[in-house]
Amino acid sequence: MSPVYLWIVAGTILCLVEVIFPVDFVAVVMGLSAVATAGVALLVPGSFALQSLFWLGLSVLSIILLRRFLPRPSRKSILQDAVEGQCLTAILPGETGRVLYEGNSWRAECQDPDVAIAVNEKVYVVGRSGNTLLVYPANALQGRSDIQHPNF
């Protein structure tokens, strides 16, 4: 099999991979680079090693240049959609437990390390530390001005 056909088949497969498994156009760029390498191999026959280096260089250069035009993912926290949750397990003072928040079970700890939260108690999500939610019991918020949240 001629290397030209190999590059065309490889390019087609890489473009189809992007359709099945989207990876931010990386596979498409590599596929188009393979097709371009097939064109170069047709015009300038050479060793397969040189063709592979050309493909690799063209792929990397194209990915770097095209990344500038792709929108960047938003780094906005998804925790700002809702503020209420329900305690699934008791959260003892200074320890962690589980809360039901936006339909999922999350690891949580009380914002105040001296407050315990009972099972099934309504809580407000006041922040996040990594994958741990910082919560405060709803019944303890009356009269507290030091707990701040934009939706309160």
TrEMBL record:
Subcellular location: Membrane
Annotated Gene3D superfamilies: Nucleic acid-binding proteins
Biological source species: Synechocystis sp. (strain ATCC 27184 / PCC 6803 / Kazusa)
Protein name in UniProt: Slr0935 protein
Transmembrane segments: 7-36, 48-66
Membrane-topology descriptor: Multi-pass membrane protein
PANTHER family: INNER MEMBRANE PROTEIN YBBJ
GO CC annotation: plasma membrane
Organism superkingdom: Bacteria
Keywords: Membrane, Transmembrane, Transmembrane helix
Principal location listed in the UniProt entry: membrane
Sequence ranges assigned to domain NfeD-like C-terminal in this UniProt record: 82-137
